[in-house]
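For the sake of transparency, this paper describes our internal protein records without simplification. Because each token names a local backbone shape, the row as a whole describes the fold. One such record is reproduced below, unchanged from the form in which we store it:
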Amino acid sequence: SLVRQVQDIIAQKNRDEGEDVDYGKLSGHEFKVREMEQQVEILQLENNLAQARQRLGEMRKISYQED
């Protein structure tokens, strides 16, 4: 099913990005760069989630109006 395919893609992506990094061995600069990159990714995901919730709300609003 489509749901299973998406779950498999997400799982594969998580495995690919799941590199084992010893953050204690990174230089101060490299650590800060990775920290900022992670923060940017989190903010992007939060924005995408907020947009998806808004779309879902609009869809439900239309659905309720039709009933």
